[in-house]
Amino acid sequence: MIQHIVNYAGIAVLAASGAVVGIRKGFDLFGIAALAALTGTGGGVLRDLLLGVDPPTSLQRWPDVTLCVVVSIATTVFARLVIKLTQLVLVLDALGMGFFATSGAAISVDHGATWFAAALLGIVSAIAGSVMRDVVARDVPMVMGPDDMYAAPAVLGSVLYVLVDHVGAQWLGVVIGSTVATVLRLAAITFHWRLPTGPYELIAHEHRERIEQRTSNA
């Protein structure tokens, strides 16, 4: 029962983030609802497709997509309030991400995936929806940009679940993996922890030099 409640809560939060992006991009009501559904269920659908679950669970059952549509409508109606509560949405999103990272890995193990595949599919469950949202909205995916860590906590949570589950403690793995992933994500939001980026300044400097050289030659 608790697992289902947390699962729906995670879907709802991700759907709300997709609806907010749709509103900011000026999408119509159908576009907002579609982006909310893609964000809320995209990770689970992709995981199920890779596991050979046909049709994917979120498309087989009506509550998942219906919840996303309802959330998109509520987000649109109360858009000003939702956008003001950005920090609360980020906290709830961290909770959903942590749970999806471990539940995705657990579902994968139950379907016969290897431990390595389960860890990867847990990561997919946690971040794929957000990646799809940003790609459709023509933004650089948040998990790949220089923002506060998002993918790294999902990776750690999924791997921790697999390690604990390997010794036969599935529920303990879910609790430990979800907690660590969520706490790390919240810490990254609070203290602005980020992974090192590539040598952007060096590349930008070289680019400016090429432009200046072309200008002087002309």
Automatic annotation (TrEMBL):
It is found in: Cell membrane. InterPro entries: Gly_transporter. Its main location: membrane. The chain crosses the membrane at residues 6-23, 30-50, 62-83, 90-109, 115-136, 170-188. The keyword Hydrolase does not apply. The keyword NAD does not apply. Keywords: Cell membrane, Membrane, Transmembrane, Transmembrane helix. It is a multi-pass membrane protein. Residues 5-79, 91-165 form the Glycine transporter domain. Pfam families: Gly_transporter (PF03458). Belongs to the UPF0126 family. This is Trimeric intracellular cation channel family protein. It comes from Mycolicibacterium arenosum.
